[in-house]
Specification:
It is built from 2 helices and 4 strands; from the N terminus they run E-H-E-E-E-H. It has helices spanning about 10-20, 45-55, and strands spanning about 1-5, 20-25, 30-35, 40. Helices cover about 35% and strands about 30% of the residues. The radius of gyration is 10 Å and the shape is globular. The model has no long low-confidence stretch (mean pLDDT about 95). It has about 55 residues and is of the alpha+beta class. Strands 1-4-3-2 form a 4-stranded mixed β-sheet, sandwiched between helices. It has one domain (about 1-55).
Length: about 55
């Protein structure tokens, strides 16, 4: 499985569309999209948000 962490929705859109990811969860304040092989989380800006989002994946 490939895990992708992005800060902004605008960064995630091309990946979501290209790999046809489905919204899995909006855990806490993060949106998580996934398919059989890819899981993507939109964390928001900042290193703390990125660290928390990565831990959730």
């Amino acid at each position: 499985m490939v895990f992708v962490s992005v800060a902004l929705r605008s960064e995630a859109e091309p990946i979501i569309e290209n790999f046809q990811l489905k919204l899995e969860d909006t855990k806490n304040r993060f949106s998580i999209y996934s398919s059989d092989r890819i899981k993507l989380i939109i964390t928001g800006v900042g290193k703390i948000n990125s660290a928390i989002g990565t831990a959730i994946l």
